[in-house]
Amino acid sequence: MTVVAVTGATGFIGTHLVRLLVEQGYNVRALARRPPQGREESLQLSWVIGSLENTQALEKLVAGADVVVHLAGAIKAFSRDAFLEANAIGTRRLAEAAAAVATSPRLIYVSSLAARQPSLSSYAASKRAGEQVVRSFAKLRPVILRPPAVYGPGDMETLRIFQMASRGFVLAPGGATNRTSLVHVEDVARAVVAAVKLDEPPSVPVEFDDGRARGYDWREILAAAGEALQITPRLIRVPAPLMYLVGLAGSLHGRLTGKPNVLSWDKIPELLHPDWVAAPMALAGYQPRWTLEKGLKDAVNWYASRGLLTK
Questions:
Q1: What is the pLDDT of residues 203-236, one digit of tens each?
Q2: How distant, in Å, are the alpha carbons of 130, 140, 148, 201, 203 from that of 135?
Q3: Coil, strand or helix: which one is 269?
Q4: Assigned domain for 229 exists
Q5: Is residue 84 in some structural domain?
Q6: Could you tell me the residue range of the domain that residue 75 belongs to?
Q7: Residue 41 has what pLDDT?
Q8: Which of 49, 61, 247, 301 is deepest in the core (most CB within 10 A)?
Q9: b/e string for 275-294 if b means 16 or more Cβ within 10 A?
Q10: Residue 19: pLDDT above 80?
């Protein structure tokens, strides 16, 4: 039975991935900072308690693994150094542990479409740096996946958009020509499983999405969100100067509370970038199943079932 080791197994994407791997009969070993509880505990997999800073835990995680899927990382931090520590240095520790195994496993690194533009934000730079680390370990036959914006059940960042929409409006950064690709979290899990099954790793990072050519603009996203909520919210464009003020407020709030915000000063250039449309490559075995309309309804139902949103 194929042994798949997973970092970030208790995160947004990770919870969907490990469930799919178990359903498909893989022997899953997952890294977690603390013992799992609730639904995570009920999954039929083995847990390694530790983090990317814990070399012994990483060695235990990768020992005997056929494939290592690296999902763990930071989407918010106070500084570029903190992003690099989580997304590049942590990746190097994992790769070194995997490379030290006699029969080195394949390493699948789930990066981000943001890595395509590393100059825009510290997050984007750190994901590109993580990719460079992975590429330097050729013996691991690495596969780099670059999903676009990911949404679906469990995503607390997308919840903010629905909460705004439920109040009758959505604040959208950037101009009318800005476009972005999207992908449902379950399709991301399917893309990772497809990468696990590859015979030969691609030589370049693999971009993928939900199959919608040229992605979406904010009006299309808003229309689908409104349909999911059965309302007609209004789109309010936020000019760049005001976006930077919002980002500054987010950064200051994070410093005051000791908890970094995703919506920070450093993140604004990334949010204002006009082209986050993926250039999908062929990924054998991957076929997206979720349309935006169906996927947003799925997310809304999940939020509503947990009292996070009123439909």
A1: 899 999 999 999 999 999 999 999 999 999 999 9
A2: 9, 9, 20, 11, 9
A3: helix
A4: no
A5: yes
A6: 3-155+180-214+276-290
A7: 53
A8: 61
A9: ebbbebeebeebebebebee
A10: yes
Contacts of residue 258, Cβ cutoff 8 Å, sequence gap at least 6: none
The answer to whether residue 24 is domain-embedded is yes
pLDDT surpasses 70 at 40: no
**Based on the structure, what is the number of domains in the chain?**
1
Judge whether 78 lies within some domain. Answer: yes
Please tell me the predicted confidence (pLDDT) of residue 23. Answer: 94
The per-residue pLDDT for 204 is 94
CA 10 to chain centre: 12
Listed range (32-41, 80-89, 192-201, 272-281) with the worst mean pLDDT: 32-41
User: With bands split at pLDDT 50, 70 and 90, how would you rate the model's confidence at 42?
Assistant: low
Give exposure, 22-41, as e/b (b: 16+ Cβ within 10 Å): beeebbbbbbbeeebeeebe
Report how far residue 234's alpha carbon sits from residue 42's, in angstroms, rounded to the nearest whole number: 42
Q: Domain holding 82: CATH number? A: 3.40.50.720
Per the rule left: phi > 0, alpha: psi between -120 and 50, beta: everything else, 75 is alpha
**β-pair partners for 227:** none
